[in-house]
Amino acid sequence: MSSGMTDLQQPKGWYSRGYLPHFDGGEIPQFITARLFDSLPQNILQKFQLELERKGIENIEYEMRKQIEGFLDKGYGGCFLRDAKIAKIAADALLFHAEKKYKLIAWVVMPNHIHFLAVPFKDIELAEITHSIKSYTAKEANKVLNRTGKFWQRESFDRYIRNYEHFIKTIDYIENNPVKAELCKSFSEWKFSSAFVE
Asked: Are residues 94 and 56 part of one domain?
C-alpha cells in the first residue's frame, strides 16, 4: 500500500505541503507547473496578492495563477531551461516517467518553467511524480551547469481537470505557451513540447 493512501485505498484529496493547496484525486487528469527557483521573486508574488485583495477580486487563486503565468512567460530569472541541453534533460525526465507513473497527455519546457498534463496511475501520488521529475532534473542540470544549490521552486502548482472542455483548453494552453510568450511563431516549431513537428 502506498504511504499516501488510506486503509480504504482512497486518494488523498485536498492537502498542503506548507504553501500551496494540492488535490490528489487519483486517476484524473492534472495540469502541473513546476518553475525554477528564481523565476518569481517572493516580493512580486506578494504584490500580486495585495493588488488582487485590494481590488476585492473574488476568485483570487484563479487570478493569481493568471498573473503568475504572465510573469513566468516574460522569462525572469536565470532561465536555465533556455539552454537546449538543460531543456532536453527536463523533457527526457517527463518522457521517462510517462507510462511508468502517469499517462502524459501534453507537455512543454519553457525557459524558466515546465507545464504538463498527466493522468497519474493507480496509487501514484502527485508529490511522487513531481519529486521524480524535479530531483533528477536538478541533479543532472546542475552537473551540466557546473553549479550547486537550489534548481526548482520547492512546490509545484497543480490543478485537476474538471471536464472535457477544461481538458482541451489545458492542452491548447500548454502547447501554445511558447507562441504566447513570443518564443516562436507556431506551436509545432517549439522543440521541447508535445506539439513539436520535425
From this structure: no
Query: Which helix (DSSP H) or strand (DSSP E) does residue 114 occupy?
Result: strand 113-120
The rounded Cα 100 to chain-centroid distance in angstroms is 18
Question: CA-CA distance, 174 to 108, in Å (whole number)?
Answer: 6
Bridge-partner residues for 34, per DSSP? 114
In this prediction the pTM is 0.84
β-partners of residue 98 are 102
CB 19 within 8 A of CB 155: yes
d(C-alpha 34, C-alpha 152), whole Å:
7
Nearest of 4, 2, 3, 32 to residue 20 by alpha carbon: 32
Does any domain span residue 105?
yes
Q: Do the domain assignments include residue 4? A: no
Domain of residue 51, residue span: 40-74
**Tens digit of each residue's pLDDT, the chain (198 residues):** 344 444 445 555 543 444 444 455 568 899 999 999 999 998 998 899 898 888 888 888 888 888 999 999 999 999 999 999 999 999 999 999 998 999 999 999 999 999 999 999 998 988 999 999 999 999 999 999 999 999 999 889 888 898 999 999 999 999 999 999 999 999 999 999 999 998
